[in-house]
């Protein structure tokens, strides 16, 4: 579940209710929450899902368990180099820019294979699959169509990559189509927590 902008109290309620996987899109906020919860909850899994600036890779690598938003080799290399030896390998996904707009983050479709080959060479990160954040679509059929290209690429890449098992597609407004398109991990925020309050004191 996506806990960005949610207070530690709200997350603590979710933990009590049995949730174990949390997604954060801001390095500082996520790190503070991880540090807070690690004292009492070693079994939580923290996923970084936001855009990555290369000067933030160390903080991400030292705290998170998963990264969904790798879109270039430089970031992948730094995450691997900076992963502490005492931690298990970082589990990562390649984020694809499915809308084709240059302003959006994510690798282009024709860059994915080369990026995946680069990541396969890195010792401390493990490539597990693909992720995307499509443009909001007005109806179910458009949502399904927006997921089709990544879903096809995911299946094709699985043929040669035994560890490739995660397709992170689907959020509150498009999870129905994402699941039909083969999502193995949905990232749900508002449909669980309600509308985010951006002014709330978080930690
Ligand atoms: C905020 C966010 C989500 C969750 O969105 P909801 O619409 O609240 O479900 C999922 N993925 C990413 C990358 C996000 O930033």
Summarize this entry quickly.
The chain has 203 residues and is an alpha/beta fold. It has helices at residues 8-16, 27-38, 57-63, 73-82, 112-120, 140-158, 175-180, 190-193, and strands at residues 21-24, 45-48, 66-70, 90-96, 125-132, 166-168. Strands 1-2-3-4-5-6 form a 6-stranded parallel sheet.
Any chance you could write out the topology, listing elements then pairs?
Layout: H1 8-16, E1 21-24, H2 27-38, E2 45-48, H3 57-63, E3 66-70, H4 73-82, E4 90-96, H5 112-120, E5 125-132, H6 140-158, E6 166-168, H7 175-180, H8 190-193
Helix pairs in contact: 3-4
Bound molecules: pyridoxal-5'-phosphate (PLP).
Pyridoxal-5'-phosphate binds at residues 2, 4, 25, 49, 133, 171-173, 187-191.
Give a description of the structure.
Strand 2 (45-48), helix 3 (57-63) and strand 3 (66-70) form a beta-alpha-beta unit. This protein is 37% helix and 15% strand. The protein has 203 residues and is of the alpha/beta class. The protein has 8 helices and 6 strands. The protein is globular and about 40 Å long. The protein has a domain at 50-186: TIM Barrel. A 6-stranded parallel beta sheet has the order 1-2-3-4-5-6. Bound molecules: pyridoxal-5'-phosphate (PLP). Pyridoxal-5'-phosphate is lined by residues 2, 4, 25, 49, 133, 171-173, 187-191.
